[in-house]
Structures are given as structure tokens and as C-alpha cells.
Amino acid sequence: MLKRLEGKVAFITGAAGGQGRAAAIVFAREGAKVAAVDVDAQGVDETIRLVKEAGGEAIAIHCDVSNEEQVKAAIAKTVEAFGKLNILYNNAGIAHRNIFITVEELDVEEWEKIQNVNLKGTYLVCKHGIPELVRAGGGSIINTASTAALINSPGGPSYSATKGAIISLTRHLAATYAKKGIRVNALAPGYVKTPMTKAMEEVFPDLDRVASEATPLGRGADPEEIANVALFLASDESSFVTGAVIVADGGLTIV
Ligand SMILES: NC(=O)c1ccc[n+]([C@@H]2O[C@H](COP(=O)([O-])OP(=O)(O)OC[C@H]3O[C@@H](n4cnc5c(N)ncnc54)[C@H](O)[C@@H]3O)[C@@H](O)[C@H]2O)c1
């Protein structure tokens, strides 16, 4: 059977754990050559080990997505290793540890750090990755939003603002690059069980119970369930989908 990403090269940020690691494994299993990108060098090495164990091909790239020089070098390294670039998956993100924090309590450093990783990081990967997608004759960009962009679910001010802005940026990019054969979509997960949400439990130990109860399907997603949606958006199966916000939230936003 033909693999769904055969012949494609994917650049996945935040690939040291959670949804990014799951995507690296799923994309590689479907035939993509994967650049697994993260600030966490040890975590990303473990992702490479898991990809290889599953018979896939990947390289680890240590990179802070909020640093332009590092992003530029990471894109260059990917093209040097695999010869081209077809898919950008902007998955790296950080959140407030205290999801109930208010603007009054939030200091400027935390506001800016979250803006820099989530929003500026997405912009920088697009800035330096899009020329390679154009060179390859087109491609697919997946930007990670969140249900925190759509409803007032706990998420905190800077985090929610970045995710809303990522949807707007996605629409801008989709319109701008459609004629160049580049599709750009936002993926908005609901509650996903990852190291990010595990860390939030240190401040709010009831998170799993409360978030699961708020979700019509009655549970959080496993990272692979989101990676499978990203796989659809990355593949040619979504060839008529661009500028969309694909919600994968177990029904959270419909109740
Ligand atoms: N977990 C959820 O419930 C949930 C819900 C909606 C959206 N999201 C979004 O999904 C994405 C993945 O989150 P996750 O749940 O897998 O979290 P995670 O914390 O498990 O993974 C995020 C990864 O991003 C990396 N990262 C952080 N800062 C970075 C930087 N400056 N440069 C490069 N990499 C960096 C981390 O090292 C980590 O490996 C994020 O954008 C997050 O906002 C998560």
C-alpha cells in the first residue's frame, strides 16, 4: 500500500515530546523524512530513536523557534540533509503553568515569552520555510492553534491571544500563498494528555477530571489522535483544504 507521505520532507517543531513526537513517528511511518526540531536536545534524540525503531527516517535539530538565526539554520540543515522541504508543522508551544492566571497577575516577561515561542516562532518558521516550499513547487503548513482561541476555556491571556493570532496568521498565509501551491491550515486541539498538561496539574491537580468532564467524548486525546489529524492536513488527501481551522477537541466547543 502506498504510504501517505511518501517522498515528502517534513519539518516538525516541538518534536521532543507530546504531540510533536507523536507526529514525527506517524509522519515517518507514512514515508516522510522528518526534521524533528526542539529546544530540548535530549528529548528530540529520544524521538529520533523511536522513529528509527519504527523503521522511519529522521534527523534531530536543536533549535529555539523564537530565535531567527537558529530557525534559519534549522531550515538550511533540513534541506541539506533531505534535499527539499514540503511540510511545515508549527507545533512547538508553551503555556501558562497556571491556566487561571489573569492579566493583572501576569508579568510582562511571561507574556512575552509565550508570544515569542508560539506566535513569533510560527512566523519565523514560515518566513524561512516558505521559500523552500515554493522551490519544491508547493506544500502544506500546519499551524497549531487551540480551542483556547475559540472559546473561553482556561488557557490564560497570553496563550489564548497567541492561538487566536495563529488562526488569523493562517488565513493570511493561506490567501497569500494559495497560487504558489501552498496550503495553510490551523489545527485546534482540545484537551490533549501531554507533558504540557501534566505540568499544569502541578498547579491545578483536578485538570484531568475537569477537562475530561467538559469534553463530550469524556476524556482527553492521546497525542497520536492529534497527529493523525495533522497527517491528513500534511498529505495530499487534504488537497482542497486551505485556510481552515480544523478542530479536534472531542466535542469540547459544541457544548
Ligand atoms: N496539550 C494540550 O491540551 C493542547 C491543547 C491545545 C493546543 N496545544 C498545543 O499543541 C502544541 C504541542 O503541545 P503539547 O501538548 O504536545 O506540549 P508539550 O509541552 O508536550 O510539547 C511542546 C514541545 O515544544 C517544545 N518547545 C518549547 N519551546 C520551544 C522553543 N522555543 N523552540 C522549540 N521547541 C520548543 C518543548 O520542548 C516541547 O517538546 C502546542 O502548540 C500547544 O500549545 C496543546
Would you mind describing this structure in some detail?
With 255 residues, this protein is an alpha/beta fold. It has a single domain (9-242), classed as Rossmann fold (3-Layer(aba) Sandwich). Helices cover 45% and strands 15% of the residues. It contains 8 helices and 7 strands, in the order E-H-E-H-E-H-E-H-E-H-E-H-H-H-E. A 7-stranded parallel beta sheet has the order 3-2-1-4-5-6-7, with helices on both faces. Helix 1 packs parallel to helix 2 (41-53) and helix 3 packs parallel to helix 4. The protein is globular and about 45 Å long. The mean pLDDT is 97. The site of nicotinamide-adenine-dinucleotide has 30 residues, from helix 1, helix 4 and helix 6.
Provide a concise account of the structure shown:
This protein has helices spanning 18-29, 41-53, 68-82, 108-135, 157-177, 195-200, 207-214, 223-234, and strands at residues 9-13, 33-38, 57-62, 87-90, 139-144, 182-189, 245-248. By secondary structure, the chain is of the alpha/beta class.
